Amino acid sequence: MKTTPTLEVRNLCKTFAGKAGLLRSGRRARVVTDVSFRIGQGEIFGLVGESGSGKSTIGRTILRLLEPDSGEILFGGRDITGLSAADLRKLRRHMQIIFQDPFSSLDPRVRVGEVLAEPIRLHRLREGHAVEARVDELLRIVGLAPHHKGRYPHEFSGGQRQRIAIARALAVEPALIVCDEAVSALDVSIQAQVLNLLARLRAELGVSYLFISHDMSVVRHISDRVGVLYAGRLVETGSVEAVFERPSHPYTRMLLAATPSLGGRRGSGSGPDIEGSPPGPFEPIPGCAFASRCPHATETCLAASPPLDTFREGDHMAACWHAETLPPFQAEGEAVMSDAFERRMALLRRARAGAET
Ligand SMILES: Nc1ncnc2c1ncn2[C@@H]1O[C@H](COP(=O)(O)OP(=O)(O)O)[C@@H](O)[C@H]1O
Ligand SMILES: [Mg+2]
Questions:
Q1: How far does residue 128's CA lie from ligand 2's centre (Å)?
Q2: Rounded CA separation 226/187 (Å)
Q3: Are 41 and 5 in contact (CB under 8 A)?
Q4: Distance, CA of 57 to CA of 66 (rounded, Å)
Q5: How far is it, in rounded angstroms, from Cα 103 to Cα 93?
Q6: Which of 25, 193, 239, 316 is most open to solvent, judged by the fewest CB atoms within 10 Å of its CB?
Q7: Distance CA 228, CA 4 (A)
């Protein structure tokens, strides 16, 4: 059975104006380049990448909190890129967002009962006593109790506040929830609880998620399908099994080799460390954006940028000219490969120094 995807993003591009004074006027920072993916009904799509790779920009552009430069965003099969402000307001009910910091997303002066009742009334989803009953129901759905209604956000722990944020998103019965680093500020044990709650809600309510995180293990835990983002481009997409067990882009492989397994220690704030840094948003990129960090890069990679479907096996795709001929993935082997990368960089530095003297 083929149903209309909840969300389809086609060739999304987003740039920002450079800061005045720092850069010549007219130059724009490339933040999201030609990103396409779809999220089926009741599906969890994980979007993973280093800090600064453009994940939040994609999430915010989908919600039309930011205007895309080009590309299409289809919600339930309908292109929403050209919607009027009035139509956009109606649409907002069906798409919700949950942020990393439950503190800043909840008004400290508003009691939890009112936090949840307000959107229900605003969208006229219930009336009179039914509003209160729905608030109780929402609290129960997210694992809190009706007697929590009278409390203020600061009276709750971080995990509980994130449950409130989830309940508030659910209050309007959305089809899609964008979770932007929604568990990244929580301790590992609380992270697992909130992830399990999100997974249960998907199963019970059929809601779809765009699950954004810099943390590979978290994305692996919750997602059905994933997209790996590098410097604003999708470099690999596919089912969790395909991408995590047969990673076909060297960047995905290096991320995986650098990631402790779920349940292990909590990762750093910005994701795993791999050598080098991505090209800046103003830097011209000849060929593949990852070539400057890639242990497998050749002349071919510097000549042309590989499209996402350069490697393709069903819906598993990777933007790499050499994906077909990479050795089978072994987390250990990748670590060795990064040593080789280090050695090569050292050689290059020496060669350059030699040329200068
Ligand atoms: N409003 C903005 N104006 C200019 N640059 C921005 C703006 N928002 C984000 N950026 C830049 O876009 C890049 C990607 O940011 P973001 O989408 O927040 O990445 P991520 O969520 O993956 O960490 C960063 O380099 C950031 O500085
Ligand atoms: Mg972000």
A1: 39
A2: 23
A3: yes
A4: 8
A5: 22
A6: 25
A7: 23
Could you report the per-residue pLDDT of 145-163, keeping only the tens digit for each?
999 999 999 999 999 999 9
pLDDT band at 355 (very low <50, low <70, confident <90, very high): very low
Ion ligand 2 neighbours (CB, 5 A) are 55-56
Closest CA relative to residue 294, chosen from 316, 271, 276, 312? 276
Using the mean position of ligand 2's atoms as its centre, give its distance from the Cα of residue 350 in Å. Answer: 37
Pocket of ligand 1 contains residue 184 by CB under 6 Å: no
CB neighbourhood size of 205 (10 A):
15
Task: Kindly tell me if the per-residue pLDDT of 28 is higher than 50.
Answer: yes
Cα 51 to ligand 1 centre (Å): 9
Measured distance CA(260)–CA(40) in Å, rounded: 29
For range 308-320, the mean pLDDT:
97
Ligand 1 atom closest to the CA of 58, numbered from 1: 17
8 A C-beta contact, residue 164 and residue 115: yes
d(Cα 6, Cα 38) in Å, to the nearest integer? Answer: 8
Q: Per the structure block, which two tokens stand in for 16?
A: 């920002």
For residue range 284-294, what is the model confidence (pLDDT) as tens digits?
Answer: 888 999 998 99
Q: Is 80 helix (H, G, I), strand (E, B) or coil?
A: coil
What is the per-residue DSSP string for 294-346? -TT--HHHHH-PPPGGGEEETTEEE--TTGGGSPPP-HHHHHHHHHHHHHHHH
Give the single-character DSSP code of 151: -
* Ligand 1: residue whose CA is nearest its atom 26: 52
The alpha carbon of 228 and the centre of ligand 2 are apart by a number of angstroms equal to 14
Integer CA distances (angstroms), 95 to 92, 132, 206, 257, 314, in order: 5, 23, 14, 34, 29
> Which atom of ligand 1 is closest in space to residue 212's alpha carbon?
21
Q: Is the pLDDT of residue 216 over 80?
A: yes
Per-residue pLDDT tens over the stretch 257-308: 887 654 344 444 455 566 778 888 888 888 999 998 998 999 999 999 999 9
